[in-house]
C-alpha cells in the first residue's frame, strides 16, 4: 500500500508541475518578460482553461490525499 501511494504521489507531483506550467500567466511576471504577455490575449480558449483548472485542482487534491495517507501510515505503523 505504501508503494502504491508513493507511486501515485510521484505521478501526481509530475502532473501538477506540468499543469501549473501550462497555465497562462495573468500578471506581469516571468511569462510577460519573455513575450508571453503579448500572446496571452491571442491564444487559449475559456473551455480549455476551465478544464485545465479542473485537472490542476483534482491533481492537487490527489497529491494532498497521498501525502496525508502516507503520513498516517507512517504514524500508525507498528
UniProtKB/TrEMBL annotation:
Residue spans crossing the bilayer: 55-77
Record-linked InterPro entries: SecG
Main location (coarse class): membrane
Domain of life (superkingdom): Bacteria
Subcellular compartments: Cell membrane
Membrane topology note: Multi-pass membrane protein
Keyword list, A-Z: Cell membrane, Membrane, Protein transport, Translocation, Transmembrane, Transmembrane helix, Transport
Family: Belongs to the SecG family.
Function: Involved in protein export. Participates in an early event of protein translocation.
Protein name per Swiss-Prot or TrEMBL: Protein-export membrane protein SecG
Organism: Corynebacterium felinum
Amino acid at each position: 500500500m505504501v508503494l502504491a501511494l508513493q507511486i501515485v504521489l510521484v505521478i501526481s507531483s509530475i502532473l501538477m508541475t506540468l499543469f501549473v506550467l501550462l497555465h497562462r500567466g495573468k500578471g506581469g511576471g516571468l511569462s510577460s518578460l519573455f513575450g508571453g504577455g503579448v500572446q496571452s490575449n491571442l491564444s487559449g480558449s475559456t473551455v480549455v482553461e476551465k478544464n485545465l483548472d479542473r485537472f490542476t485542482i483534482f491533481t492537487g487534491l490527489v497529491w494532498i490525499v497521498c501525502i496525508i495517507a502516507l503520513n498516517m501510515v507512517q504514524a500508525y505503523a507498528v
